[in-house]
Write a structure and sequence with these properties.
Layout lengths: L15 E4 L3 H11 L1 E7 L6 E6 L2 E6 L5 H14 L4 E10 L9 E9 L15 E2 L2 H13 L4 E8 L12 H5 L4 E3 L2 H11 L2 E11 L9 H6 L2 H10 L1
Parallel strand pairs: 1-4, 1-5, 5-10, 6-8, 8-9
Antiparallel strand pairs: 2-3, 3-4, 5-9, 6-7, 6-10
Helix pairs in contact: 2-5, 3-7
């Protein structure tokens, strides 16, 4: 079977897929947490794996950077591979002084500066929110594991190097916790297709606090609190 972006066969993916942005984080997770793991996709280096975690079948696949990329992969997983749940496990920049490096943010909803929702031809502005079922399970797991977490609104932006260096201040004033580049598209795609989605983020840097930024290697290998929560609810 396969698609232009995925050479997996029907049945190669579990009903729940964890999606880090970085395919090397997907590889690390699969090799360190899954049993009986097998590679199911490698098109364009966007690595995907399926195995078992505590007896449950789970898949892990990279999403790439930005809404167009996760939009393609999530749409194909939902429509071509019968996936029911996608849990994004990513990194984000804090835009709230109370949200610090390495802390976990559970995205209740996503704001955006993107025109992603124009395709749905809605007579207003669409609010992209998570699956409450997955959100509730995630909060429960975080409490069980005694992990410090935040739940709230995030910003999914199309722009990483923004010409306006003050652009996030207005979002911060509205209580938005962190900025990343994928969740609005994921939540919207899931809603449109009648599926479930959630985003778990680990703060990798802060735009408002003077804290040292994490390295690429640290983001790949040490954001274990978020990874373990996601695996438990998969």
């Amino acid at each position: 079977m396969g698609t232009a972006h995925n050479n997996a066969n029907k049945g190669d993916f579990a009903k729940t897929v964890l999606m880090p942005g970085d395919p090397l984080r997907a590889k690390y997770l699969a090799e360190h947490y899954l049993e009986n793991v097998r590679e199911v996709n490698n098109v364009r280096g966007m690595l995907g794996y399926t195995g078992t975690y505590k007896g449950k079948e789970v898949s892990i696949m990279g999403s790439g950077m930005g809404m167009p990329s996760i939009g393609i992969y999530s749409y194909e997983l939902f429509t071509q591979y019968d996936v029911e749940n996608i849990i994004r496990i990513g990194s984000a920049g804090s835009i709230n002084k109370d949200v610090h490096i390495r802390e976990v943010v559970i995205a209740q909803g996503a704001c955006t500066d993107s025109a992603w929702a124009h395709q749905y031809e809605l007579p207003g502005v669409y609010s992209a929110i998570s699956s409450f079922d997955l959100l509730e399970k995630t909060v429960h797991q975080a409490k069980e594991k005694n992990i410090h977490y935040h739940v709230g609104n995030i910003l999914s932006s199309d722009i990483f190097y923004h010409a306006d260096s003050t652009s996030t201040a207005a979002w911060s004033k509205m209580g938005v916790l962190a900025v990343e580049m994928e969740t609005y598209a994921l939540f919207s795609t899931a809603a449109y297709l009648g599926k479930k989605a959630l985003t778990l983020l680990t703060i990798s840097d802060s735009l408002v606090n003077d804290e040292p930024e994490t390295t690429a290697s640290e983001r790949e290998k040490t954001f274990t609190d978020m990874m373990e929560i996601a695996l438990e609810i998969a």
